[in-house]
Amino acid sequence: MFTGAHRVRVDEKGRLAIPATFRKQLPDGSYVSVGLDRVLAIYPPEVWEALAAELRSPLQGPDQRALARTLYSLSSSFEPDAQGRITLSPESRRAAGIEAPATAVVIGSGSRVEIWPEGRWNSYSEDAQERFTEFADRVISGH
């Protein structure tokens, strides 16, 4: 399970260091792609395979085609360099609104790691923390 939040620098080449605690949990076969809410996500192999299984139908409907095209066209294998950095493609950075150079926030989100532009994460996180009890009551209690 991925937990925690880390602010990291995205250099002018689009590289950012993935925190060691996350790197240790991400095996070979992980993928970086788009995630929900216009962020990037690093999917471990079992999560990536579950997503792929949902998109395997040979006769996909328009929503399935759009999801598959977006997910796969913006994906790359997770291959950190010797310093633990990955390079985000310009297309992936554009999709998530991550500038280079800038600061991004790499967060644990349970089954995956997410990469957020710092400003958007600050706004989202502040709102979500203020509404935590409301969310917990609806999600956990089923109200």
The low-confidence runs, each spanning 5 or more residues with pLDDT under 50, are none
**Average pLDDT metric:** 95
| Sequence of secondary-structure elements | EEHEEHHEEHEEHH
Structural class computed from helices and strand pairing: alpha+beta
Number of helices: 6
How big is the Rg? 16 Å
> What global shape is seen?
globular
The CATH architecture can be named as 3-Layer(aba) Sandwich
Q: What is the rounded distance between the termini?
A: 26 Å
SSE topology sketch:
Blueprint: E1 5-10, E2 15-17, H1 20-23, E3 31-34, E4 40-43, H2 45-54, H3 62-73, E5 76-77, E6 85-87, H4 90-96, E7 102-108, E8 113-117, H5 118-130, H6 132-139
Antiparallel strand pairs: 1-7, 2-6, 3-4, 3-5, 4-8, 7-8
Q: What this model shows, in words?
A:
The protein has 143 residues and is of the alpha+beta class. It has one domain: 3-Layer(aba) Sandwich (Chemotaxis protein chec), CATH 3.40.1550.20. It is built from 6 helices and 8 strands; from the N terminus they run ββαββααββαββαα. The strands form 2 sheets. The chain has a 6-stranded antiparallel beta sheet. It has a two-stranded antiparallel sheet with strand order 2-6. The longest helix has 13 residues, at 118-130. The relative contact order is 0.23.
